[in-house]
Amino acid sequence: MFKKFTNACVALVNKYLPDPFLFAVILTFIVVILGLALTGQGPMDMVKHWGNGFWALLAFSMQMVLVLVTGSAMAQAPAIRKVLQAIGGMAKSPTSAVMITVFVATIAFWINWGFGLVIGALLAREMARQVKGVDYRLLVAAGYAAIVVWHGGLSGSIPLTISSASGLGATGGALTEAVPISQTVFSYWNLIISAALIIVMPLIFRAMQPDAAHTVVVDPSLLVEPEVKQYLAKTPAEKMENSKILWGLVALMGFAYIVFHFMTKGFDLNLNIVNFIFMFTGILLHGSLRRYIDAVIEAAKGASGIILQFPFYAGIMGMMTGLNANGVSLAGVISNGFVSISTAGTFPLFTFWSAGLVNFFVPSGGGQWAVQGPIMMPAGLALGVEPAKTAMAIAYGDAWTNLIQPFWALPALGIAGLGARDIMGYCVVTLLITGVITSLGFLIF
Asked: Phi and psi of 357, rounded to 5°?
């Protein structure tokens, strides 16, 4: 029964889910219509919000391109290939390949979401190379769907933001003191929810393992690795490109900063330092600057989706947060709607659901917090709900619907060489099950 339901979801998504760019365009017009209907703004008001927000994610877009490029380039280094091959060698069957992939990816996402995006996609590729008869779509879905745990983990932007006094601005004045991560990420109830998801994810993907008739094995062309080039250093330019001295100095400088960063800032794995680590680890392991340059050129071919689509999502965010004459935004209308039907017991649950809905249109943890923090935090305090639980409910909602939001899948899909419709059917099933688990968590605790 479960496999039939999974197959039906996969078939439905394959038939009706458009290209991710068209998906972003359709979402754009949906938000325009909702804004007109729910905030009383005119068409030109929505166009202005859209245009004003269109380039708001330029810095973030470049960060995401670098996640893809530096992660892929690093993976082309012989030493990284050996590590992935060793993990892949642990799988003895298609089922174990999928379960190992999702388990490793889930742990990686809990540690750091940028790290998880890269590791999940790379491990899926390696499993497909080593294990015969495994469904490649399911493998890649397993590597990506693990994103559902990220905002309850060590790189969760919302709990990290409110852990310092400087990050309390987006709470609508509800918080005057910082909320330490001991009350959010390391609270007993968050650790239970995270552990439940980490344990259940491999079981979900084990149950979704298709039979032979529905298995789609990987196209061998997607797994072809670039040939190892032999570099000649005859001219002065070629000698500089292959210079061990220049390579060593650049790598030394990079790792000196990495050590300095962690010595002065502790375990701060923000996106910039993750990309920094990926880049300089790649440079070190490739053994020369010329080899690393060529690896980056190859990896950059998969970044087109991010470059094209992220400005449209920035425009959608602009319309979601754009204020009417009364200072009300579409995201505010949605959030306040959930607040109006909440009690102290149901508020964390409804906050989680509302955050999941808003995240579909504002797929950014920082953007989501800016939209919902000033609404949900004061409302939670008025109902007697702990600030930490309200904040984490927003955080989990933000992570939850990433499962069916192509925005975050683009870097992983670029590495894997697949399209969104190839994996989203499996992600829909995962969304339903993890939604139930997380909802129960916020009801019980």
From this structure: -70, -45
Mind listing the pLDDT tens digit for each residue in 211-232? Answer: 888 899 987 777 776 566 667 7
CB 104 within 8 A of CB 149: no
Residue 282, CA atoms < 13 Å, CB-side half-sphere: 26
**Torsion angle defined by CA atoms of residues 75, 104, 204 and 201, in that order, rounded to the nearest 10 degrees:** -120
User: What are the residues whose beta carbons fall under 8 Å from the beta carbon of 212, sequence distance 6 or more?
Assistant: 133
Axis-axis angle for helices 330-340, 20-39 (nearest 10): 70
Contacting residues for 258 by C-beta, under 8 A, at least 6 apart? 273, 276, 277, 280
Please give the Cα distance from 24 to 61 (Å, whole number).
Answer: 15
Residue 5, C-beta contacts closer than 8 angstroms, at least 6 positions apart: 429
Q: 69-83, 182-196, 212-226, 367-381: which has the highest mean pLDDT? A: 182-196
Token digits for 366?
């920082």
| Dist CA 439 CA 364 (whole Å) | 21
266: left (phi > 0), else alpha (psi -120 to 50), else beta?
left
